[in-house]
């Protein structure tokens, strides 16, 4: 009964949820009463296993909705369990990750086996007490029909429940929608206004500039508009605006609507770069196996830039680098960092930017650069948070040992949602301060920076408010660069206000290539 009535959202786990009447129980008992003995045992075992799978799907839905604000996709989301194990290993240690994987596996097997045995046992009890079970089914069925007809509810939930049937039908429809989406995506991807643009007509308005696309992990609208977070993060943005202004830089800001929230950064990165809406793993796989022109590969095709990636979150082979048109990718193993991990974050943001300066931007005699830089210090679980250090004192990162020791333990932070929100804010402040300090120190007349968030943080931080928008800002010292986007209507400064323009993230590629193409 509990399995049949189990909701798919944590907030619906209330006593009232379990006071309803599941139609599947009534129909199931009726079926067991009329089946012969051999068939009854087989049907009971299969029904129990199926009910165990439905329970598992509901539990997975609770987890996915709590983090990614969407239900679990039984076709596409299995790959995320490997990411989850890696996240646990990096954040809590390999022992905790291994124990979690073993524990989850044991629980899944125990759930399926015990549910099957439970329904088989129930079938025997029902048949043995047929004289009581038969009228009970008739009465329960009548009550269910009346409650359904009258719309009777308890705590906002219908007493006449058909939750398990809805789960099954919903999953079938989800698979059908996935198949239809693949065809729709192929049609969308076939349209590309810039596929055949000659190299000499790409990005003519940025020739000779160093263009940096910088993603700040989990930097969403909540960071600049939530009443609890915005005052401190806003102060960092205001200070950054003042410092950049003193260095001769100006900026314009707006919002982009991300295809994901709570996680799945690669979906946002690929949406931003490709001009296609990438909101699931199948679309991502299809995209990265294609020859779609991306923002970064457009710079490479133009032949006027060296294209590099600073990817501190990448810890193993990353074949997608070829799809993005990057001449070289520096990951956590090649940035020269020998310091400690900050929970999940392999390399502090300031060190990643310093490594970019050392490896590429600061090399004498180099040509123009296009760099995609991922700042990861604001990645969940947001503890411990690094602090800013003198740029000439970073060395190989060993200096961060004492910084990490002085930080907070993520397990303690996550015991209190208020602490989670506080540490999230501190992490975003650090990432922004690292970027502003870098541009202030190393930027010049040819520096153009586009920085943005990839998605909103998890619901523990957002409290399901302010949607999926992320701030986006363009910074440049050359007035001609910002003049090119004067008709976009973006607001002055690095902090977009509540009424700033909002675009879908997949709209950015075409608008950017158009604005900085031939006039």
From TrEMBL:
Transmembrane regions: 17-35, 42-60, 95-120, 132-152
Keywords noted in UniProt: Membrane, Transmembrane, Transmembrane helix
Superkingdom assignment: Bacteria
Transport found in the keyword field: no
Protein known as: Sulfatase
Species of origin: Streptomyces lavendulocolor
């Amino acid at each position: 009964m509990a399995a049949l009535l189990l909701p798919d959202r944590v907030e619906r786990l209330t006593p009232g949820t379990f006071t309803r009447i599941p139609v599947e129980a009534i129909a199931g008992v009726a079926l067991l009463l009329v089946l012969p003995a051999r068939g009854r045992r087989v049907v009971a075992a299969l029904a129990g296993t199926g009910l165990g799978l439905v329970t598992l799907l509901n539990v997975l839905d609770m987890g996915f909705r709590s983090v990614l604000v969407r239900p679990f996709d039984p076709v596409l989301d299995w790959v995320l369990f490997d990411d989850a194990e890696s996240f646990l290993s990096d954040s809590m240690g390999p022992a905790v990750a291994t124990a979690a994987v073993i524990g989850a596996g044991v629980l899944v097997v125990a759930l399926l086996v015990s549910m099957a045995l439970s329904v088989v046992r129930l079938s025997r009890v029902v048949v043995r007490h047929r004289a009581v079970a038969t009228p009970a089914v008739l009465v329960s069925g009548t009550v269910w029909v009346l409650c359904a007809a009258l719309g009777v509810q308890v705590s906002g939930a219908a007493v006449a429940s058909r939750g398990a049937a809805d789960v099954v039908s919903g999953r079938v429809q989800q698979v059908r929608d996935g198949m239809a989406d693949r065809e729709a995506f192929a049609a969308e991807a076939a349209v590309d206004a810039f596929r055949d643009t000659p190299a000499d007509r790409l990005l003519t308005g940025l020739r000779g500039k160093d263009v940096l696309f910088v993603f700040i992990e989990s930097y969403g609208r909540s960071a600049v508009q939530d009443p609890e977070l915005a005052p401190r993060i806003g102060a960092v943005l205001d200070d950054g605006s003042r410092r950049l202004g003193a260095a001769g830089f100006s900026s314009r800001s707006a919002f982009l609507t991300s295809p994901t929230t709570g996680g799945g950064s690669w979906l946002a990165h690929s949406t931003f770069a490709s001009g296609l809406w990438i909101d699931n793993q199948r679309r991502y796989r299809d995209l990265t196996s294609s020859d779609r022109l991306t923002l970064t590969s457009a710079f490479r095709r133009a032949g006027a830039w060296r294209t590099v990636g600073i990817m501190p979150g990448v810890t193993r082979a990353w074949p997608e680098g070829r799809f993005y048109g990057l001449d070289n990718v520096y990951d956590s193993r090649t940035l020269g960092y020998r310091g400690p991990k900050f929970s999940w974050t392999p390399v502090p943001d300031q060190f990643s930017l310093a490594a970019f300066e050392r490896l590429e931007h600061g090399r004498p005699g180099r040509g123009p650069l296009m760099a995609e830089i991922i700042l990861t210090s604001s990645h969940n679980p947001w503890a411990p948070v690094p602090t800013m250090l003198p740029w000439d004192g970073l060395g190989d990162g060993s200096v961060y040992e004492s910084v990490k020791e002085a930080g907070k333990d993520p397990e303690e932070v996550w015991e209190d949602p208020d602490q989670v929100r506080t540490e999230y804010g501190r992490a975003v402040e650090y990432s922004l301060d690292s970027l502003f300090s870098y541009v202030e120190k190393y930027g010049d007349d040819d520096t153009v920076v586009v920085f943005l968030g990839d998605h909103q943080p998890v619901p523990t931080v957002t409290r399901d408010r302010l949607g999926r928008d992320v701030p986006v800002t363009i910074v440049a010292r050359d007035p001609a660069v910002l003049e090119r986007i004067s008709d976009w209507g973006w607001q002055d400064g690095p902090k977009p206000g509540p009424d700033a323009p909002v675009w879908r993230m997949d709209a950015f590629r075409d608008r950017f290539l158009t604005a900085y193409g031939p006039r």
